[in-house]
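#struct-pred
JK: can someone run the complex with guanosine-5'-diphosphate? inputs below
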Amino acid sequence: MDPSTPTARPGDAQPEDGSTGGAPFRSGFVALIGRPNVGKSTLLNQLVGQKVAITSPVAQTTRNRLRAILTTPAAQLILLDTPGIHKPHHLLGERLVQSARGAIGEVDVVLLLVDASQPAGRGDSFIVDLLRHCRVPVHVALNKSDRVGADAEDLAATYRELLAAGDDCPVSWPLHACSALNGDGCQDLVEALAADLPPGPLLYPADTVSDQPEQLLLAELIREQVLTLTREEVPHSVAVRIERIVEDEGKTRGKERTAVLATVLVERSSQKGILIGKGGQMLKAIGQGARLQMQKVFDGPVYLELFVKVVPNWRSHPGRLAELGYRGD
Ligand code: GDP
Ligand code: MG
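RT: done, structure tokens with the ligand placed:
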């Protein structure tokens, strides 16, 4: 795929005994595609068993394509989390859509995620049409199965009809009911996806779960708290830049502490006010929430210092987007 893709270390044993039942080991890339908020990032975290992508009830949380890596005895799946496909409103919106579309062209399998607690709608049909002529196998995950009751079959039928509706190119991709939230159906889903990958070796060491640089994960953990804690007008105008990470900065109760200094960028001074809050309460809560998550990443105490800075229109400046790591590829 891309030249920076790491290969397995020589010491990484390939399962070549009976563990794959004599079938060849398989490996490859799976793109998660779907409308915003259907649960792509939640599924990614569920599949790899730990938090690698941030999630939130606010649409358009995921800004970058993230690779999460899932290794089973039979296969290695490199999962690409893509920003939700939607109509672009400004430059950042366009970059998000480009990024999701780009992913479709370079993978072995596409996983189309839908929110099966709602009937198929226009947003789904836009994406299905985008995928109809796709040359690789497509699977459909009917996510949020924990939310559907007796009407599960009726809802699934609306998705089946949607696939069959294309005049020039009806499709009958396999449907898999699952819940990214509680894990139901996820194992079957992984097996179905793995079966459609080409035979191949481990592409990453078996214990890798993400290719995301640590800085980006830390920035995302802060952004997640902002999305969760602030009012609606702030989230999409927020970017986080990690300024410095100092390991072994000191000790807390005898354990090495890591210091993280970060700047939260917003577009307007009114948003800065909201982020800081009365007497600094909001920024304190954001910092505390992010610090708890970071302590899991570092497996030790973290000191987090947050600054808030106003950068007017950062979303519309290609240079600033690149600086913050948002690529249109
Ligand atoms: P994305 O935009 O597609 O990446 O969606 P997210 O993973 O950020 O999830 C959006 C929202 O849907 C979050 O509030 C999740 O907790 C929720 N969600 C995701 N998967 C499920 C699921 O299987 N069941 C339920 N009930 N909620 C889910
Ligand atoms: Mg997401």
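RT: quick notes.
The first strand starts at residue 26 and ends at 33.
Strands lie at 26-33, 66-71, 75-81, 109-115, 138-143, 175-177, 239-252, 255-266, 302-310.
JK: thanks, will look after standup
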